Amino acid sequence: MDIKKLQHGEWSSSFAFILAATGSAVGLGNIWKFPYITGENGGGAFVIVYLLCVGLMGVPIMMAEIMMGHRGKQNPVDTMNTLLKEAGADKSWHYLGWMGIVAGFLILSYYSVIAGWALAYVVKAFTGSFSGSGSAEIKELFDNFIASPVQLIFWHTLFMLATMLIVARGINNGLEKAVRFLMPGLFVLLILLVGYAMTMTSYAQGIYFLFNPDFSKLTFNSVLTAMGHAFFTLSLGMGAIMVYGSYLPSDVSIAKTSILIAVADTVVALLAGIIVFPIVFSNGLHPDSGPGLIFQTLPIAFGNMTGGWLFGILFFVMLVFAALSSSISLIEPAVAWLVENQRMSREKACIWAGLTAWLLGFATIFSFNIGSGIKIFDRNFFQLLDYLTANLMLPIGGFFIAVFAGWIMQHQHSEQELKMPDRQSYRIWKFLVCYVSPAAVFLIFLHVVGVL
Hints:
By secondary structure, this protein is mainly α. It has one domain (about 1-450): Amino acid/polyamine transporter I. Helix content is about 80%, strand content about 0%. The protein contains 19 helices and no strands. The termini are far apart. The relative contact order is 0.20.
């Protein structure tokens, strides 16, 4: 164990960790998914429920996962082995570490494909492919793009290579340097696009839709969707936050950094809504357009508004930045395990992990074209993989992280790691992670499997 810990790197500062963990949390879910699920669920009332879920469910579990990683100081599997021995718990708990690594790895395989779409759309925006196009032309453009395995493989390969090159350089020279560039760049692009959205004729309508609560539009399904998205957008249960926590210096407050990460992640999601909805309303589009809002709806707007060429480029560059900051965290748990258990160099571990995820990504690519007719449980491979990871593995992982941190870890160990400012703050966290958070995740799981 000591040798493995010596192989482990460390963030140079708490700020570096906050940037990295925020980068892991901020991804396609914030900029692509949050606007469209907000549009589908009525706007402001949904946002309020989402914010409550982040505070009551997401932050306590994030604190628990960072704390566990920080105490174990290894990859998720070996961290769980260390913690279960320390707590005198059943050896089966080490499967929680494996679940996180496998979930993150599987997500990376299809995440890279979708991120490749964003990369391709940067080029399409730059070459004026959206200029003057209507809904039929944009739909045809998108359909032709995903129908071409060669194009999808090219962009998937390019994105995966970028991910591997960053992670291969190590904690300080790779991950840390990347997020120090990507995250400030992402926020600068967000601010620029917010400024542009403020010039739109329907800016006020977009803001009203996003922040005015109409609780009559909320359903039980809306509440569950908000809880699910709050959980998934913080990258919980996939090993990334645990392994990032393992690189955390010992003098950093886990509670404060968790809150800062959650706030930054939420701000990005809200800014994405502030950008998207004014553009949508100003161009007579529909906010409830679903997953196609970014790739099939916004290009119509970018192609027909003043300055749309430039701001289309900026938007999709921002999407690539967000995707890349997440993808490096998705591959890191697998790389850490290979380095610490198979005596591989970091470069070799990146090649093996990245190549395997890249090859698995072909199944997702073919789901949109030559293999679209192949169904497993009435889903193509991409849909099945997305359902398995996002709707099953992550909620189960999050539930057991809360249970382990709240019920299995010794009280003095969790208190020692969290360094809460007072006993009352610790008691509040303990109550949330023991009762509120697992109950909320359990409700999500019951909804996913069709019980609720």
